[in-house]
Design a protein that fits this description.
This protein has 253 residues and is an alpha/beta fold. The protein is built from eight helices and seven strands. The longest helix has 29 residues, at 104-132. The structure holds nicotinamide-adenine-dinucleotide (NAD). The site of nicotinamide-adenine-dinucleotide (NAD) has 29 residues, from helix 1 and helix 6.
């Protein structure tokens, strides 16, 4: 039980990578707050965790809305008296297309879900972390934030901002015993965003094109990312802050 009794929020955990993180952390003893804007999916993940013998509650909240993020953090405190880790996983992308064809609304949504969410999580969780003697943020960024490719320009930039902001916060919040780290996953073909990243259905041709750039010869899975999150959330990661763990099979280009 590597995170036994740690209280952990996982945003956007109604499906995809976040679901994998929430389930892995719960299996290792965490008290998990499952969050999503999609209540049916979020409640299903929560029920799965409880059925497997874990501890979880579901809190519907939009990570782009200050009052809702505040309520999300408070729900963790009300339920379990503290907050130890916040995994900022909720994310969104415009469809893979030329930069000039992405609408202003899509740009705003991309930066709100991917980046403003980090600001709001910081504003609302840091006072709780400080009161509890410390804490840890795990921000799910992307390989796209460090090795950008054409077609996802505004998404790539939002993830680059997540990475730089996380490193800055790590430096600023270290004296409060608050750690801030990122995980950079490479393409996962099985999530709600996969077709958007790929620019269409993830068919054999698109799979082959992506796969050719990953030396370890497969895509990332939610479990790969969850295992990295487990390490950062656990006491094994107690002196790790300001880093990005690449979960990318050594993607080279
Ligand atoms: N799938 C990949 O290839 C890949 C690669 C690198 C990084 N990522 C990142 O991983 C994270 C998870 O994405 P995923 O691929 O599992 O996609 P997903 O769409 O399957 O999961 C994202 C979840 O976030 C929720 N969400 C969206 N907006 C929200 C909001 N405003 N408030 C609360 N919840 C919200 C969605 O309802 C969904 O359940 C994202 O940050 C994404 O950028 C994904």
């Amino acid at each position: 039980m590597r995170v036994k009794d740690k209280v952990i929020i996982v945003t956007g955990s109604g499906g995809g990578i976040g679901e994998g993180i929430a389930k892995r952390l719960a299996a290792e003893g965490a008290k998990v707050v499952v969050n999503d804007i999609q209540p049916v999916q979020g409640q299903k993940v929560t029920a799965d965790i409880v059925a497997a013998g874990g501890q979880a509650i579901f809190v519907a909240a939009d990570v782009t809305k200050s009052a809702e993020v505040q309520a999300l953090v408070q729900a963790a405190v009300q339920q379990w008296g503290r907050l130890d880790v916040m995994v900022n996983n909720a994310g969104w992308t415009h469809r893979n297309r030329p930069a000039l064809e992405v609408s202003e609304d899509e740009f705003d949504r991309c930066y709100a879900v991917n980046m403003k969410s980090i600001y709001l999580a910081t504003v609302h969780a840091v006072p709780v972390f400080r009161a509890g003697g410390g804490g840890s943020f795990i921000n799910i960024a992307s390989t796209a934030g460090v090795r950008p490719r054409p077609g996802l320009t505004w998404y790539n930039g939002s993830k680059g901002a997540v990475i730089t902001t996380s490193k800055s916060l790590a430096a600023e919040l270290g004296p409060d015993n608050i750690r801030v780290n990122c995980i950079n996953p490479v393409f996962n073909p099985d999530t709600g965003l996969s077709a958007e990243f790929a620019g269409g259905p993830v068919d054999d041709a698109r799979r082959a094109k992506f796969l050719a750039t990953i030396p370890l010869g497969r895509f990332s899975s939610a479990l790969d990312v969850a295992n990295a999150a487990l390490y950062l959330a656990s006491d094994e990661g107690a002196f790790i802050s300001g880093v990005c763990i690449e979960v990318d099979g050594a993607r080279c280009v």
